[in-house]
Amino acid sequence: MQIAASLVAIILLALPAATPRAPRGGWVSLFDGKDLSGWTVNGTEKWDVEDGTIVGESTTGHYGYLTTDKMYRDFKLRLKFKPEAKGNSGVFIRSRITGNDPDHGPDIEGMQIEVDPTPGKHTGGLYESGGRAWVIQPTAEGERALKPDTWNELEITAQGSHIVTRLNGVQIVDYHDPTPRFTDGVIGLQLHTGGGVKMRWKDIEIQELR
Length: 210
What we know:
- The chain has helices spanning 2-14, 140-143; strands at 28-29, 39-42, 46-50, 53-57, 64-68, 75-83, 89-101, 105-115, 126-129, 133-136, 152-159, 162-167, 170-176, 186-191, 198-208.
- The protein has 210 residues and is mainly beta.
- Strands 1, 3, 4, 6, 11, 12, 13 and 15 form an 8-stranded antiparallel beta sheet that branches.
- The N and C termini lie far apart (47 Å).
């Protein structure tokens, strides 16, 4: 028996090691740092790639959106943003472009995670466009999490009716939506109407949840 066991051990050692499989549900980059492949520009505002980042900048002062070509339902999303002007922005999830207003730019509906360059202006809070407007705003601690004029890391988890946001490691909202209206759609970066917006984005990654 000992001889047989030894032979089995020798045979197993001689076999090539199995190639590790990539974990299911791993992180996928939505931006390659080179161009806007996989994204659609909506409106007349300027979206460009510069030094490995996406730069969104007001040109006509209308709303502008850069949206993913793919739709998503349940996921974790993480990205970094850097405000370079005072204008307001945001990250839309489970959203749809519904039309275009000649005076204001594209219309959108869905849940927005607020991104504002000014501390105390609710970055990381939830605003429902085409619906309830403000759904939940940050706590007092959350309002202090924004870093003006430098890179910030935003994390968003959307699973069913549960949405959690974190800004620079600080939990901003943990919200169970009693009346969810939008369950899937595109992810979008926003330039708010009114002009004066310049926002830089990078390291945009998503992990779909099953």
